[in-house]
Amino acid sequence: MAINTNRPTSPHLQVYKLPLTGIISITHRMTGIMLTAGLILFVYVISALAGGADSYTAMQALMSLWLFKLVIWAFIYALFFHLCHGVRHLIWDSGSSFELDTLNRYAMIELVASLALTLMTFAWGCYGL
């Protein structure tokens, strides 16, 4: 049986370029999953606090590892990104800002604002600025 090679192929990720708003939408969903995982980590921290001195010391040792510090900062970024995207949805709920150039501009503002908020939190948390 011969395969017909003359038929058109459907677009796939190597051919089709997602618009910025599509990437933002996917990122919003991914940060929602990250926030859920972060809440599980938060429950662990709270339970370690309630578990006494030994439990708290073990939790501090675990949280001082570079990987967990990275996870905590990813959680903070996810929180701010989710917040900024939620504000964007509130603007959309008013029934405005659906023009393509406005959508792309707000997407860039959302990315910059979430990164700026994360960096400000980092500066405040690490350096007390």
Give a verbal description of the structure.
The chain has 129 residues and is an all-alpha fold. It has a single domain (20-127), classed as 3 helical TM bundles of succinate and fumarate reductases. The chain contains four helices and no strands. The protein has helices at 20-50, 53-63, 66-93, 100-127. The chain is extended and about 70 Å long. The termini are far apart. The model has no long low-confidence stretch (mean pLDDT 90).
Question: What fold name stands as the CATH topology?
Answer: 3 helical TM bundles of succinate and fumarate reductases
Approximate helicity band: over 70%
Structural class: mainly alpha
The H-and-E topology, N to C, reads as HHHH
Regions with little confidence, pLDDT below 50 for 5+ residues: none
Identify the CATH class. Mainly Alpha
Largest sheet: none
**Number of helices, counting only DSSP H or I runs of 4 residues or more:** 4
Mean pLDDT: 90
The CATH superfamily label reads Fumarate reductase/succinate dehydrogenase, transmembrane subunit
Q: How many strands in all?
A: 0
Do you know the CATH architecture? Up-down Bundle
| Spatial extent as radius of gyration | 21 Å
Oligomeric state, counting identical vs distinct chains: single chain
Our count of domains comes out at: 1
What gap, in angstroms, lies between the N and C termini?
Answer: 71 Å
Strand content: under 5%
Shape: extended
